[in-house]
C-alpha cells in the first residue's frame, strides 16, 4: 500500500490501519463484554483475536477502495 511521511518519518499504512482496527476493537469490546459475562462466548481471547483480524481486513479493504 505504501507509507505515510510524517515530518520525515515513514510510517507504513498497515501500521496506521492496525492501530485504527485496534481502536475500533476496543469500542466493540465494550458492547461484547456482557455476552462474555453471560457465558455465550466460551473463549474470549480467541474470539477477540478473530474479531481483530476481521476488523483489520475490513479497514484494509476500505482503504484500498477509497484511496486507490
From TrEMBL:
InterPro entries: DUF1656 (IPR012451). The chain crosses the membrane at residues 7-25, 45-67. The keyword Transmembrane helix applies. It comes from the Bacteria. Keywords: Cell membrane, Membrane, Transmembrane, Transmembrane helix. The keyword Membrane applies. This is DUF1656 domain-containing protein. It comes from Acinetobacter chengduensis.
